[in-house]
Amino acid sequence: MDNFKKNIEVIKNGKANLYGKDFLLTWDKSAAELEMIMHVAEALKNLNAENISTKCFETGLAVSQFRDNSTRTRFSFASAANMLGLTVQDLDEGKSQIAHGETVRETSNMISFLTEIIGIRDDMYLGAGHTYMKEVADSLEEGFKEGVLPQRPAVVNLQCDVDHPTQSMADLLHLKNYFGSLENLKGKKIAMTWAYSPSYGKPLSVPQGIIGLMTRYGMEVELAYPEGYDLIPDVLKVAEKNAKASGGSFKVANSMEDAFKNADIVYPKSWAPYSVMETRTKLLYANDKDGLKDLEKSCLTNNAKFKNWECDAEKMKLSKNGEALYMHCLPADISGVSCKEGEVSKDVFEKYRIETYKEAGFKPYIIAAMMLTSRFNDPAALLNMMKERNLKRILG
Amino acid sequence: MDNFKKNIEVIKNGKANLYGKDFLLTWDKSAAELEMIMHVAEALKNLNAENISTKCFETGLAVSQFRDNSTRTRFSFASAANMLGLTVQDLDEGKSQIAHGETVRETSNMISFLTEIIGIRDDMYLGAGHTYMKEVADSLEEGFKEGVLPQRPAVVNLQCDVDHPTQSMADLLHLKNYFGSLENLKGKKIAMTWAYSPSYGKPLSVPQGIIGLMTRYGMEVELAYPEGYDLIPDVLKVAEKNAKASGGSFKVANSMEDAFKNADIVYPKSWAPYSVMETRTKLLYANDKDGLKDLEKSCLTNNAKFKNWECDAEKMKLSKNGEALYMHCLPADISGVSCKEGEVSKDVFEKYRIETYKEAGFKPYIIAAMMLTSRFNDPAALLNMMKERNLKRILG
Amino acid sequence: MDNFKKNIEVIKNGKANLYGKDFLLTWDKSAAELEMIMHVAEALKNLNAENISTKCFETGLAVSQFRDNSTRTRFSFASAANMLGLTVQDLDEGKSQIAHGETVRETSNMISFLTEIIGIRDDMYLGAGHTYMKEVADSLEEGFKEGVLPQRPAVVNLQCDVDHPTQSMADLLHLKNYFGSLENLKGKKIAMTWAYSPSYGKPLSVPQGIIGLMTRYGMEVELAYPEGYDLIPDVLKVAEKNAKASGGSFKVANSMEDAFKNADIVYPKSWAPYSVMETRTKLLYANDKDGLKDLEKSCLTNNAKFKNWECDAEKMKLSKNGEALYMHCLPADISGVSCKEGEVSKDVFEKYRIETYKEAGFKPYIIAAMMLTSRFNDPAALLNMMKERNLKRILG
Predict the structure, then answer these.
(1) Using the beta-carbon criterion (under 8 Å), do C357 and B56 form an inter-chain contact?
(2) What is the ipTM of this complex?
(3) In which domain, by residue range, is A315 found?
């Protein structure tokens, strides 16, 4: 049985159903639901590799709203929409009337008359991003029930203050591919560690997403950061609970070296302390520019105490056989390349550079799978239909 | 006979032909032409509801040029283009060389080599928007005749200084749907009234569009505003003439209460006085920032005298059985929601909120109908072909 | 044999193969390769005129990166992508993380997972644009070889510091069409001359592109400019070599009048001196705003000495029978229209205005041909397939 058939079998037998549902947090989803997403992503990748079109919408919009800069996710979202036949329409607050006080409820409906998917990145304000996405979802729900919208668009979280599911799921698919299977991940140690960066205010959603997801696959997840660089406490509870349920473990430590010891995978990545993000959010809302400058200054000073939190060759030697897989959501702060001193040394990054590119390469398919499963009741049947239809993506 | 067939029958028998024509002002169009637009819009809505693709272009561009902010119309235009198979390409003056003095004539041709539709919003400058659209249309006409363009793109007015036909036509379709038929609108009283807003400089095109269109359907149209808040005189003449021809009436008054009395429909909406818009246009052209600030200040002071021009529960009681239909082009200035004191009270808006969303929901289909009728010689045949082809919009 | 068939015959017999190749400079391409591009462009234009769809991608992205303003090329690129079925996704440095130091290598891969074409305009910095495009191409090559990318997107130069091949090829197709054949261009004199403009810093790529391409067709190419307004020396060498090989000639002079004498074609167009562009690039990199202001001032003062370098009726009389074809890449600085004194007089421009529009009209097809030939191994077979498939671009 070829890979495509295997994927379809798993989807069929999975009993998961994501039809009509938003994708906001991985920990709101069942194991079967996450497995469905991964297999649909793989099936789409298979079809693409065979030059078989995966277009399943003749027309329809996929709205993207980026409340923070983005290149990778923007292109992944555009690729995902395109491979299913949807057209991306940007909701740009700069251009739109949202900036002038229009309510979320109203705008959500106004942009959705012929919309299938709304992808949102909103990671700047702690306590706000996830809340905003739920508000949009509720507004769409009401609009659909009241007959305003002929269909209920699904919301896909393209990064919020709490989770970054399209990243963590792509990372998981990369691990599955790298180690051969999800089963093989059991017992593997992953070190999700803070790393030094000369910038400040990086979101918490990547480390939170990783500990919230990887703990579900029986892995030994170790979170390490300098004292004070805490994540949102609720997410740590999620990770603990997940680890218990999956037969893995979850540990928090304050040493990069300890975390790297015997690790199969390392994920060194900078973030701002939870408490700083809270303060920053308040200052941003208050438009307190001086306060923000002071905060940035004090944070950078504090960061600078931890310049030794760099993923270098020396620390990599501590990992399993000195050959742990290095992961990053990109772009990394590479010492001597993109900054003087950063998250990772030049030589370590170069060794794993191509792997990090491949890691990123799963994202368009993960997003497409989230879109597809939210809009089609029977993804297995749909994928089979695509295969049988055998419409060439590139003519010839 | 189902709704779709009824629509097709009316289109066939209507003897209207909009092929190759721009859509700039509703009062340039015959009754039969407007009726065709509405029926095509309804037919497209029917097909969409049945998951039948309305794609009629394999490729082709729909250019949009927004010289003022827009969310609703931008998404309606994108949805309309998409449902017909056209790809939106934005002409952004910020990005483009128009900002550097390039002539309208040249740009109009340069963006049109493979373009079917050009949608323009240009409502900032009194005396300029409609004129600009005609210039674009003339340039396209010349380009087509001279063999520069293989086809003559049609210009669609997405709001100018004079009219807002995609809004007023969507409003009319909403009324038709709400009251059951165009016939049923005869004798109904609609109060198009000014309303207080804490902002200034809102365009005149919505009230002008409403009085210019609704007077054609035998309605009793009453325009009410505080002294000095006049509209463009020529449009009032159009409304008077229309009312006479249709057996309806057109009246101008200075009392919101009087206008609401016995009204079947109320449309309370802020706008700037005609004379202010003239002054403002001169100041904008002269780039006189101090003058603009002074003007804004004096206008807001004047506006503030009319805070009682709010659509509240008390005034709604004056309407027919206290149950007039409230309309708005959105976003409304809602007292206690989007501003302290505004066009409409919170409770009145909330009661009709879903209705205003539905009102807006007709716009993508109205725009698509304007596009379709300008590019296809026999819309009835085309719509029938779509129905028979029965290509699923969403696969499955 | 009709035109379409003739085009296909030439493509078939041409033995050129551009599959998998970037299009950066015309002088990197063989005569057969350029001929293939032109014939594919003409075939696409034929099919479009017959309402036959030229869609050959069901899905896929065409990324555009404009590092300088653009209307014409932006729309030409969008039209080209659209006619082949590709969706344009903009890489906007303002929006993206490139602005924050991300390496070219990484971004090139991140935007390319489902991308077929990357079109780049980068003409601001002398020594940088062409170099950047090669870097992108090398990154894509690596990504494809390492299995990061399932396909190798082709880079298309939409204007760099050295060449502007989509412009010069469109110009050549215009000449072929105007004079009846490429053969007919032999012995024709083309005057590529500097012209006065009240602006400064215009790129060198148009005149360089013209002398680098037109010298290949046996033409008498005369480049004329005021002393000091030199182009990049290497490109002059290319032009000399080409002229020798094709049996034409290449001459550099310092008189507009001399260049116009007996010319069959004149192409008067402003540019900044090579040395100024070098200085400007250094100042731009150093972000030296005062230096840039001083440079602009001194350049404009110098420009002003050459206001007589205007293409006017008097000079046109010097040309072959006083009837040389006037060419321009648009927008032209037209005296008394877009500026007080400029590149061309109002009457001369008006006489040839429609011709310059037609000249521009070849660009979308040239770009589409560059895209198509880089992605399809057998363009002749593909075009025949399109013709036989006979899918209507506009339904009906």
Answers:
(1) no
(2) 0.96
(3) 167-360
